[in-house]
Amino acid sequence: MYFINLTLGGVSSGIVYAAVALALVLIWRATRIVNFAQGGMLMITTFVALGVIDATGSYWLGLLAALVSGFVLGAVVERVLVRPIENGPPMNAVIVTLGLLLFLQAVAGMVWGGSPRSFPPLLGIKGFTVGDARLLLSPSDLFVIGAVLVVMALLVLLFRVTPVGLRMRAAAFSPEVARMFGVRVGRVLTLGWALAGAVGALAGVLVAPATFVGPNQFDAVLVFGFAAAVVGGLDSPPGAVVGGLVVGLTLSYVSGYLGSEVALLGALAVLMTVLMIRPNGLFSRTSVRRV
Asked: What transmembrane ranges does the database entry give (predicted)?
């Protein structure tokens, strides 16, 4: 039973990392930029959702507010901060997104304070009972798992089937050629950031009941989400989910059998092993061009 609970706990935490990884994968596939400010953006939208829930008592209105604010925030960030440096060296985007992360954390601290706040889950967080044993899996965990799988499926369809997704991929890989075929690259990139902001907002709402809400509460989740995206491959939504599960299970098993103090080393070992064997990730089919 101990192993089963470790596995269930790893799946529960891993699917949370996968939710963040999906947002990172979406923005990478749409713009070829790793958004290090994703944690700050989803933190802001989660605060917005919490405010709406406190004011209305409706989880769904809070979720809607988070999605809308994430969509708008993503579009504004692309238009105001990313577009002026999109043709510059790749390091410019890294510096800008890291600076944006620090700025958003500072703004959140001034507006909402530095004390973490609890976020109400949609469903119960009490684990299921099997006989006399309590499982580390709750209705809330099942909701998060289902939501992440649906988002993964929608992203796969977006990039493989829809004209919008194909335009995003063309604009990201070869904007000059895309313009020759009539693709409005600027609008496509803005849409990519906006959709990534909305996916990140959903991830924040899903993650918040387990991590609380505060200016720096999502830092660790962002780190593990980034690791999950790299392990699975920054080009692959299914890879993001698999990578999240690999990271979550690794942390759970190492913490359970060897101690929590070496859990991070276990995750690092998995990340380094994957990068040595498949530098572009387990599910990536393209070569990485920007970091």
From this structure: 6-26, 33-53, 59-81, 93-113, 142-159, 188-212, 264-283
The three-state secondary structure class of 73 is helix
Which tokens go with 103?
Answer: 């700025």
Query: Could you tell me which residues come within 8 angstroms of residue 22 by beta carbon, excluding any fewer than 6 positions away?
Result: 148, 151, 152, 155, 199, 203, 237, 240, 241
CA–CA gap between residue 251 and residue 266 (Å, rounded):
7
Instruction: Give 131's contacts (C-beta < 8 A, 6+ positions apart).
Output: none
Structure tokens at 136: 């580390």
Helix axes 163-173, 139-160, angle to 10 degrees: 70
The pLDDT tens digits for 68-96 are: 999 999 999 988 888 887 777 778 888 88
Alpha-carbon gap, residue 43 to 1, rounded angstroms: 35
Strand ranges inside the chain, DSSP E: 129-130, 133-134
Are 224 and 232 a contacting pair, CB within 8 Å?
no
Cβ(36)–Cβ(157) below 8 Å: no
The Cα–Cα gap between 69 and 47 comes to 10
- State mean pLDDT over 158-183: 72
- Taking each helix axis from N to C end, the angle separating 163-173 and 2-31, rounded to the nearest 10 degrees, works out to 70
- 108's enclosing H/E stretch is helix 90-112
Instruction: Tell me which residue of 243, 236, 144, 152 sits closest to 199, measured CA to CA.
Output: 152
Q: What type of residue sits at position 104?
A: L
| pLDDT tens-place string over residues 191-230 | 888 888 898 898 888 888 877 888 888 888 888 888 888 8
